[in-house]
Amino acid sequence: MKFSTRIAPPNSLVLLEDPSGGEIPASMNRALIGSTASCIAVGCRAEDDGETEIVLGSAGSVDTGERPVFTGMLQTPSRRLAVRTVHGALLLEAPVLMVETKLKIWVNDPSEPDRIAIGIEQ
């Protein structure tokens, strides 16, 4: 299973959360990734500079061979993972096995990536 899309997301940010929603991080604290137990915010290429490719799939299928910039757990009570814009538009969605899912995130640039790989560990 592997899904992908290309978009110049509003505010140069995408959200990973359960389709029922999550608690968006209050601040990014000048970091590329901010997270709560129910939402992970990932910065991407500046919206005005062009699109960002977002890939979602099993960790083994999207692993870039580099060290992930994020490894952690996300609450997924509906057993689905959604990637959305900050305005709520659904970009990608995938089934997960558990109500808490381990994710790994790889990027191709530490400050303004134009490729984000989101790996689901099941």
Describe this structure in words.
The radius of gyration is 13 Å and the shape is globular. It contains one helix and ten strands. It starts with a strand and ends with a strand. The protein has 122 residues and is mostly beta strands. The chain has one domain (2-121): Substrate Binding Domain Of DNAk, Chain A, domain 1. The strands form two sheets. It has a five-stranded mixed sheet. A five-stranded antiparallel sheet has the order 3-4-2-7-8, with no helix packed on it. β3 and β4 form a beta hairpin.
Strand order within the widest beta sheet: 1-5-10-9-6
Number of DSSP helices?
A: 1
User: How far apart are the termini?
Assistant: 12 Å
Instruction: List the domain count as a whole number.
Output: 1
Q: Any chance you could write out the topology, listing elements then pairs?
A:
Blueprint: E1 2-7, E2 13-17, E3 33-35, E4 39-43, E5 52-58, H1 59-62, E6 70-75, E7 80-85, E8 90-95, E9 100-107, E10 115-121
Parallel strand pairs: 5-10
Antiparallel strand pairs: 1-5, 2-4, 2-7, 3-4, 6-9, 7-8, 9-10
In short:
The chain is mainly beta and 122 residues long. It has one helix at residues 59-62; strands spanning 2-7, 13-17, 33-35, 39-43, 52-58, 70-75, 80-85, 90-95, 100-107, 115-121. It has a 5-stranded mixed sheet. A 5-stranded antiparallel sheet has the order 3-4-2-7-8, with no helix packed on it.
